[in-house]
């Protein structure tokens, strides 16, 4: 019976798998198709006579045969299927269902049957299901690409690879002082062809840092691999119990788990991830050479030649820079001690400077001989890269502001634009803020990751850009910000664990703090018990937390100078916020950004926020927000000019209440994949100048009422895959200058006749097929420039 079953299943699965290559040519969903094929191959393995011999009931055999045959038909017609999207990548709905059905078929036919064959008991258990889950970025555990320019790592990379691939090596420690390039070396290792060939998609990267959370790490691993835990992970014990099940099922390739930046005191974390799983290896990076590791690789600093090469590259020393005395260059390079991080930072700070400046730096740094034996010795030397001329002292201030966020966090550029617009009176569009971040990137003090932009976006759209910063640099920012007494600091950055509040905060005779920027980060064990502080001069308040329930601190009510509020939930689930009513009394609050917050309850008692100009919602649960408000939106938010809604996955229909905010100038709704309807009331937003509806893949059409938006200058519907036509009366948008319709693959109908009335239209961004639709009217619209967008599927920003 088992042999016959094997033959039947082999024949059917072979037909389905054979259909996959044709489907690849027609669709973009390679990941899902590969997973479907992998699922079928796993099903084949279950019936392999050499490994598992199962005597299944005839009704199960028949059902499996019918299920797999059904999948073959769906695969062959996938190019004609309706498409759904997740994270900007499209896939046929039917294939998503096929993938789940096959997983269930495997589970039903194996978990329910434990048979004896030749006297041996065999039990197959597939408890982990692949299910459609709520949106969650899956780049948590992906390995970032190494820097574009590296030197001196080829030999260490080969040595590390040789050691890692030894059969007897299951756990390997890569150790070196801070700033030596441990993470860069690991990134290069993961790009090696032999390593990629061996571990394939089973390279899992976890940044551990100072305060690791095992539960969150395991949840991220499940999310990254697209698996759903058998039951909700409530504790560290639950996490460690379920992780080996997932690891056992992500084969057949070997597994490499990388635990990056393990601090002294967290070395026991490594023990929790040790499992008796075949072909499973762990690579740990740390500043500490933990003695418990049997196999260790010590990464050395760069030699003089490689150090000189890296420094000259970072300082852009070319032939025309020969006016810098060679001896000065050598002294500075020696002073950097062979640390790649320091070489890049110091080189960047001296880039383009006069020879006198170089020599002046040498005099300040004594004889140029520095030694880096510990982090406490490294910090003073890193400070040397923070020497800015008077006209660029704001760049140093921006650098220190980056310490307001969690270590290794991807900081959205939009947050920094909001902060710096108020703290330093920079422009609201963010042009100067981005220029400052570019300056920090050039000096190797931060890393700005920008998505490729079309001509219409270069000066106005930064919502998908991020900033990252090495943990050593964050420590430097914190160190620089803490040199003055608490009450005199311009920025006060606090990290609170559990109930361990700072002593000065609990003092009865507490003096007012004069900080303009206040950042408070709490961990998962914080109980929400605040002591009152006096912060009358705070203009920017950053609250980072990780709990499911969070209470705004009472002192917010008296922060009358507060202009920017950023509430960022870094936990795994959406959070409920209490005490939100404290904001209603603030006379100067202009900008609010909420991340991963359930906001429906916040709007029920909405009171006027007369100064509020901008609201940003990122990965929030919107629910019935703006629908059940006690007062009309135009009265509650009389000066609101901009609304940004990004990755709010429960948004199906734009709340009608938002259409009452008639003073609105910018409305951006991006990556809300379930959004299918824009209300007719959107035509009431007669002051709207920018309307961005990007990557809303279920949106079917734009309402005809947008014809009333006579001030609209930018209309962006890029990557709205379901829109098949432009509004009939789009020609009445008499001030429209930019139309971005890149990625609107279903927009194949001829343009409306009214299109010829778009006399002010200057830029249309689209692909080659859509560009042909505009050719007949280019002679009529004399200002028009058609920009053909290159195909660019780039998700690298998710890794940062």
What is the topology?
Layout: H1 2-26, H2 30-46, H3 58-76, E1 83-86, E2 89-92, H4 93-111, E3 114-117, E4 120-123, H5 154-164, E5 171-175, H6 182-191, H7 193-199, E6 203-209, H8 214-225, H9 236-249, E7 255-262, H10 268-272, E8 280-286, E9 296-298, H11 304-314, H12 326-335, H13 340-350, H14 355-364, H15 375-382, H16 393-401, E10 411-412, H17 413-423, H18 431-442, E11 447-449, E12 466-468, H19 471-481, E13 491-496, H20 503-506, E14 517-522, E15 540-545, E16 549-551, E17 564-569, E18 576-578, E19 591-595, E20 614-618, H21 633-636, E21 642-646, E22 666-670, E23 690-694, E24 714-716, E25 738-740, E26 763-766, H22 768-774, E27 785-788
Parallel strand pairs: 5-8, 5-9, 6-7, 7-8, 13-14, 14-15, 15-17, 16-18, 17-19, 19-20, 20-21, 21-22, 22-23, 23-24, 24-25, 25-26, 26-27
Antiparallel strand pairs: 1-2, 3-4, 10-12, 11-12
Helix pairs in contact: 1-2, 1-3, 2-4, 3-4, 5-6, 8-9, 11-12, 11-13, 16-18
GO molecular function, one term: ADP binding
Domain NB-ARC: 155-316
Protein name: NB-ARC domain-containing protein
């Amino acid at each position: 019976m088992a042999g016959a079953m094997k033959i039947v299943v082999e024949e059917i699965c072979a037909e389905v798998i054979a259909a996959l290559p044709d489907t690849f040519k027609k669709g973009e969903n390679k990941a899902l198709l590969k997973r479907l094929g992998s699922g079928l191959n796993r099903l084949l393995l279950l019936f392999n006579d050499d490994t598992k011999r199962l005597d299944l009931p005839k009704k199960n055999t028949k059902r499996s045969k019918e299920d797999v045959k059904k999948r073959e038909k769906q695969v062959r017609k996938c190019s004609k299927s309706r498409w759904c999207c997740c994270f900007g990548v499209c896939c046929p709905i039917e294939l998503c269902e096929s993938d789940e059905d096959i997983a269930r078929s495997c589970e039903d036919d194996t978990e329910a049957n434990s048979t004896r064959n030749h006297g041996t008991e065999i039990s197959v258990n597939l408890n982990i299901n692949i299910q459609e889950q709520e949106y969650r970025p899956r780049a948590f555990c992906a390995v970032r690409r190494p820097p574009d320019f590296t030197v001196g790592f080829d030999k260490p990379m080969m040595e590390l690879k040789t050691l890692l691939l030894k059969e007897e090596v299951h756990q390997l420690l890569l150790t070196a002082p801070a700033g030596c390039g441990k993470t860069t070396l690991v990134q290069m290792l993961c790009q090696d062809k032999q390593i990629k060939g061996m571990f394939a998609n089973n390279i899992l990267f976890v940044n551990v840092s100072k305060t690791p959370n095992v539960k969150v790490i395991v949840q991220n691993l499940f999310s990254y691999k697209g698996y759903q835990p058998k039951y909700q992970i409530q504790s560290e014990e639950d996490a460690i119990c379920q992780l080996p099940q997932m690891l056992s099922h992500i084969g057949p390739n070997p597994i490499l788990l990388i635990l990056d930046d393990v601090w002294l005191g967290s070395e026991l974390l490594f023990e929790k991830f040790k499992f008796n799983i075949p072909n499973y290896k762990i690579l740990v990076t740390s500043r500490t050479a933990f003695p418990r590791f049997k196999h260790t690789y010590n990464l050395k600093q760069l030699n003089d030649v490689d150090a000189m090469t890296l420094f000259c590259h970072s300082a852009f020393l070319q032939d025309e820079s020969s006016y810098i005395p060679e001896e000065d260059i050598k002294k500075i390079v020696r002073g950097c001690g062979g640390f790649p991080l320091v070489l890049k930072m110091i080189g960047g700070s001296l880039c383009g400077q006069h020879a006198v400046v170089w020599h002046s730096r040498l005099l300040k740094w004594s004889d140029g001989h520095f030694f880096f034996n510990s982090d406490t010795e490294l910090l003073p030397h890193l400070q040397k890269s923070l020497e800015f001329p008077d006209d660029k002292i704001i760049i140093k201030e921006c650098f220190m502001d980056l310490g307001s966020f969690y270590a290794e966090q991807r900081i959205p550029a939009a947050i920094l634009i909001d902060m710096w617009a108020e703290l330093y009176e920079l422009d609201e569009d963010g042009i100067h803020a981005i220029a400052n971040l570019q300056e920090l990137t050039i000096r190797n003090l931060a890393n700005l990751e920008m998505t490729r932009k079309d001509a219409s976006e270069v000066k106005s759209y930064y919502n998908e850009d991020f900033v990252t910063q090495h943990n050593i640099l964050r420590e430097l920012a914190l160190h620089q910000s803490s040199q003055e007494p608490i009450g005199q600091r311009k920025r006060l950055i606090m990290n609170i664990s559990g109930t361990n509040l700072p002593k000065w905060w609990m003092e009865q005779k507490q003096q007012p703090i004069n900080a303009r920027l206040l950042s408070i980060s709490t961990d998962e064990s914080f109980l929400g018990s605040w002591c009152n502080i006096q912060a009358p001069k705070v203009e920017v308040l950053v609250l980072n937390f990780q709990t499911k329930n969070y209470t705004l601190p009472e002192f917010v009510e008296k922060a009358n100078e507060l202009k920017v509020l950023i509430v960022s939930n870094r936990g795994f689930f959406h959070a409920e916020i209490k005490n939100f009513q404290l904001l209603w009394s603030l006379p100067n609050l202009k900008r609010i950004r909420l991340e991963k917050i359930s906001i429906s309850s916040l709007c029920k008692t909405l009171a006027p926020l007369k100064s509020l100009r901008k609201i940003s919602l990122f990965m929030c649960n919107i629910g019935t927000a703006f629908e059940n408000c006690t007062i009309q939106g135009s009265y509650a938010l009389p000066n609101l000019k901009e609304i940004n809604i990004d990755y709010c996955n429960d948004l199906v229909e734009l709340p009608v209440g938002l259409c009452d905010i008639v003073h609105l100038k910018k409305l951006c709704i991006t990556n809300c994949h379930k959004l299918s309807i824009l209300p007719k009331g959107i035509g009431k937003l007669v002051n709207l100048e920018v309307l961005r509806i990007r990557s809303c893949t279920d949106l079917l059409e734009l309402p005809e009422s947008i014809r009333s938006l006579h001030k609209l200058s930018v209309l962006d519907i890029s990557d709205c895959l379901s829109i098949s036509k432009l509004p009939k009366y789009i020609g009445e948008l008499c001030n429209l200058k930019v139309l971005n319709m890149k990625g609107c693959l279903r927009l194949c109908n001829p343009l409306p006749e009214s299109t010829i009335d778009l006399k002010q239209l200057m830029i249309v961004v689209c692909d080659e097929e859509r560009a042909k639709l505009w050719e007949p009217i280019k002679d009529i619209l004399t200002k028009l420039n058609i920009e053909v967008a290159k195909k660019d599927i780039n998700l690298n920003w998710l890794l940062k």
